[in-house]
Amino acid sequence: MSDEKNSSKRHRFSDWAGQDDNAPELVAAATVVLLRDAPGGLETLMMRRSSKLSFVGGMWVFPGGRVDDDDYPADRPDDIYAASLTAAVREAAEEADLAIAIDDLVPYSHWVPPTTINKRFATWFFLAPAPAGSVTVDGGEIKEHAWWRPADTLARHQAGEVEMVPPTFITLMELAEHPTVDHALAAAHSRADDIPHYETHIALDGKVPVSLWHGDAGYDTHDAGAPGPRHRLTLHEGGWRFERT
What we know:
Blueprint: H1 3-11, E1 26-38, E2 41-49, E3 60-61, E4 64-66, H2 80-96, E5 106-112, E6 120-129, E7 142-148, H3 150-158, H4 166-175, H5 181-190, E8 197-199, E9 201-205, E10 208-212, E11 231-234, E12 241-244
Parallel strand pairs: 1-6, 5-8
Antiparallel strand pairs: 1-2, 1-4, 2-3, 2-7, 5-6, 9-10, 10-11, 11-12
Helix pairs in contact: 3-4
């Protein structure tokens, strides 16, 4: 991919997201996945949102939030990617009291939720090494935090101890394959010209919801039973199941 195409891709999500006049408007957002090395392996900073919040209340998430108007560069007021970088730095400071540099952010993925969701955030996910310093949360919007290995967070989810949303789940699954921060960052850098983009379609397998992504046989038709390749997350109450062929 040429630099020009990659730059264009990073600056606009409206070109990627399927447009539905009846769907709630997409709002730009940014998430930063902070990583650190520990004796047991790579850990990520997880934060539990207050259960009183209307959006993903009670869920365990990475630091992040919507892009504010002040996050846009004065000379590039439509540059969503640049604004998302600034928002990621700001959210790390506001939610975790950690100071990170924009240059430390590595673009990792971009997520667009289904058109059926009331609050729709088109979100850039970035990786970054955790800076020195202690995490502090406000006890309001964020109730608690923990440094966990991705595999341990997934095990807690499987056991019903923590709740999360599919983008968090998929990110943790991928990061569980990396033993160190340097390994995870190198892998993210290696796909800089082909950053994964997930625009979620929802289907039902019986009464069980299924998140479908590009490449799944049922993606365009929203048919969970369509035969063929799989790229999906089946949201069973007894444990989520990811399939990708």
